[in-house]
Amino acid sequence: MKKTPEKEQNKETERSASEKSTAALATDLPQTEVSEPEDPMAGLQADLERFRDLALRSQADFENYKKRAAREKEEAIKYANMALLERLVTIIDNFELGLEAAKGEGKQSPIYSGMTLILKQLNDLLNENGLQPIEAEKKKFDPNLHEAIAHEPSEFPEETVIRQIRRGYRFRDRLLRPARVVVSSGLGK
Hints:
Blueprint lengths: L5 H23 L11 H39 L3 H22 L6 H19 L2 E4 L11 E7 L8 E6 L1 E4 L2 E4 L1 E6 L5
Parallel strand pairs: 2-6
Antiparallel strand pairs: 1-4, 3-6, 4-5
Helix pairs in contact: 3-4
């Protein structure tokens, strides 16, 4: 007989022992618990689907972000002059007060005529850039456009604007400044 090296005999012995222990384990366990190993392709396919879904969601989120950023940028550009116009409106108020004082000298006065012309040019420029004055007198009181500073009895129906104390303005579709008004409380008793 041919002698096999000792190392090979040990390996064969170890192999047969491990096969016997695996077989013994399999026979000891109920058949329902022994299952075939999970298909690696099915696991990879599930991961692929999950990552594909994640990629599509991320892409949609990024597209929404780009649209929102573009809309916010457009709006910022559209309303960039709002702070400047707020300051200009205050200057126009003072200019109108000066015009009323110049009216005391007479409407034929060169100062009054010049100031009227300048005010018209200023208002035209502001209108071209989206600023519109709010007409308030004899209109129904609207808390979105008017700021009531007093109520007075008058012949006008209740909640009607009697006088405008300070003109209000809209800038494009936003309220720049509400009109300060006196509102009718109806007929006095």
